[in-house]
Amino acid sequence: MYKKLSIIIPVFNEESTIEILLQKIADTNLIGEIRKELVIVNDGSTDLSNQKIEFFISKHTNLDFWYIKNKTNKGKGNAIRYGLKIATGDLILIQDADLEYNPSDYNVMLEPILSGEANVVYGSRFLNMNLYKKSYWGHKIINKGITTFSNWLSGLSLTDIQTCYKLMDANLLKSIDLCENRFSFDHELTAKLSKNKFIKVNEVAISYEGRSYKEKKIGWFDALAAIYAIIRYNKFMKSEKTGMDISSPVFNLEVNKLAV
Length: 260
What we know:
Elements: E1 4-11, H1 18-27, E2 35-43, H2 49-59, E3 64-70, H3 76-86, E4 91-94, H4 106-114, E5 120-124, E6 132-133, H5 137-154, E7 166-169, H6 170-174, H7 185-194, E8 200-205, E9 208-209, H8 220-235, E10 254-258
Parallel strand pairs: 1-2, 1-4, 2-3, 5-8, 6-9, 8-10
Antiparallel strand pairs: 4-7, 5-7
């Protein structure tokens, strides 16, 4: 029985959105009587993100927080790996700080986990396009291409490998040796998950409100790095040991898509 969800939030120069996001998380009541733990990793922000985070924490003493501050920017993947070291929940979810993803989708993602259908859930922006706001055709085409390439090598059938929203069993995630520091973390994680035959992945439809290209921190270099990471981790890396109980019928390599 899962009791606590650790929400890892990498932050880099998000002074305009971080307080709003944290309030949305605070206002979200989770199903199954699951408690929330916020693991905020300030990844070398040079704006007012730090002050706004500290102010929010000081006003919400009823919430469980971990707050880590990197002196320099080390990348999203590095921030997530740091957060994993201190997260105490038995479930872990990754949350961007830019308001593109809405915490109101937490419960949709939790349902397959709590029902025993899965131990890994990806939130897909493309399963229900009615939930996709501010659509940019270039972004969708690139994502589609990268996801298709990843599926070809991994054997999965995901629709959105680059989604921020990834939820999974904490013991499972912490058992995987992760090393990517930037956005290729997504591709490393997916590749290493796919190599474990005891994993069942569900995909659920989530809402998405994308920022403009100018506002995004991911660029063409990251797209090339993604392709390299997909090849590297799918073709040249050995399977990971998870230490999970393989006797359960839940642990089979499979991707389910749940549209809402």
